[in-house]
């Protein structure tokens, strides 16, 4: 079977935060990961992890095509005795804003893609904010990013498309309404 490229698009429906692990001083405690031009992106390893987690969810349901062997072949595995790792056949690129959209936004207007949101912890007994619990997070407005997956066989295209449909959120605070999304795949090239 031939191996090819599956293109995918991530359509964000809400603000989202894929963290860089950095802060911006007094502005925000956590900032969005950005490319060298200041535009947001999602690392390929994050995308691979989301697809792998979706696969494991289907696997736990006992669906025939979601086997351990299939998982190991696609995403890789670690030998329990030797602790050696073997990579899977799939490679996930970073998901970027398309070049045409970057040009339309303009490099001097990139800051309009972001905003800060604040949250604090509330003391359960008093209903008052806990001391020193205010956190500010930079989020990105809803946009669409695109990337690709290498190493998929034609027979695996439908499985990957099914996994993409299952992924509904990306990034931090997914259980609090951030990062809702839809992922669409295109046919293997």
TrEMBL record:
Keywords: Antiviral defense. The keyword Nucleotidyltransferase does not apply. It comes from the Bacteria. InterPro entries: CRISPR_Csm3_endoribonuclease (IPR052216), RAMP_III_fam (IPR005537). Residues 10-182 form the CRISPR type III-associated protein domain. The keyword Nucleotide-binding does not apply. One of its GO terms (biological process) is defense response to virus. This is DUF324 domain-containing protein.
